[in-house]
Design brief:
With about 300 residues, the protein is mostly beta strands. It is about 0% helix and about 40% strand. A five-stranded mixed beta sheet has the order 5-7-3-1-9, with no helix packed on it. The protein is rod-shaped, with a radius of gyration of 44 Å. The N and C termini lie far apart (about 115 Å).
Length: about 300
């Protein structure tokens, strides 16, 4: 066999050895001159006997041409997309995975860096300048950590991007990874009216009763009914108590009282808010029409038992 890269030149072989031409030899000419030329055609073999005393016989011969093996495709490097829950303080950690597929037998490198999407570097996330990542032989994936800044601001989810560039020993498949920062701060809605308390007042030795409604706004926007919320004055209110309907306006303490209902017989009587209205406010979108047990009777205060 002839090969331009063989270590032994064919002219250096001793032809008198029985297996003189067994192996791979460098030819007298240069096989590289044949690169790119068609193999089809007529090939000739010339044999020269330089000794008039020696005799020889050619039984058969054949010619096999070996071209260069096609190059092994380079591995492909890609990056995934991730989400990061923002948090309230400090930094929240997110982790991209950069993967390499294909031939992993050789090392490869790739560079990565961050850039803004809808998020801003410095205020929303910690930026990364161009950094080189090295894959050792056999390694298929490597992590890249990124960090988002926590805050208490209510805002839409935001994004930033990690971009791959300048690969060596590989090509780039998916070269952009998107990090979505998930906001975990609820939008405050302070323009909410709710029934903070329903209680009852009596006179004439318990024969006359009226219902008292205490209306507040969710002034701190936490979605909870608590004593720190502000009373809602000037609220147009319609309620029912003991089978009758009453309407009016809450006072400066957010209080509305029904008229006295006299001569109630024994039984259970209910008091409920039917409607609340105040310009610029909504009633109970968070389902907070809570009544605490102000009278400490162990029953909801919208139920009167006499």
């Amino acid at each position: 066999m002839l090969d331009d890269d063989a270590s032994t030149h064919i002219a250096d072989v001793d032809p008198n050895q029985p297996t003189a031409y067994t192996g791979i030899f460098r030819p007298i000419g240069n096989l590289a001159t044949l690169v790119g030329k068609a193999a089809r055609g007529t090939w000739s073999l010339r044999i020269a006997n330089e000794s008039r005393y020696a005799t020889a016989r050619l039984n058969s011969w054949s010619l096999t041409l070996f071209g260069s093996a096609p190059p092994t495709p380079l591995p492909v490097i890609s990056i995934d997309d991730i989400t990061i829950l923002e948090g309230d303080v400090g930094t929240a950690n997110g982790q991209f995975t950069i993967t390499r597929s294909g031939d992993l037998s050789r090392p490869a490198t790739v560079e990565y860096a961050t850039s803004d999407g809808t998020a801003s570097e410095g205020s929303d996330y910690l930026g990364i300048v161009t950094t080189k990542l090295t894959f050792s032989p056999g390694v298929a994936s490597l992590p890249v950590s990124v960090f988002a800044w926590g805050d208490l601001l209510s805002e839409p989810d935001e994004t930033f991007i990690v971009t791959l560039d300048n690969p060596t020993g590989a090509t780039i498949g998916d070269g952009q990874g998107v990090a979505t920062i998930l906001d975990d701060d609820a939008i405050l809605n302070t323009n909410v009216l709710y029934v903070y308390d329903i209680r009852f007042e009596s006179r004439q030795r318990g024969r006359s009763w009226r219902a008292v409604f205490q209306i507040q706004s969710d002034s701190d926007g936490d979605g909870q009914a608590n004593a720190s919320d502000e009373p809602a004055s000037g609220v147009s209110i319609t309620v029912t108590f003991a089978g009758q309907t009453y309407s009016g306006i809450t006072d400066s303490n957010g209080i509305f009282r029904t008229d006295w209902n006299t001569n109630l017989g024994p039984g259970n009587y209910f008091a409920n808010a039917v409607d609340l209205a105040l310009t610029g406010f909504v009633w109970n979108p968070l389902d907070i029409d809570l009544e605490d047990d102000t009278d400490a009777d162990g029953k909801p205060d919208d139920l009167l038992s006499i």
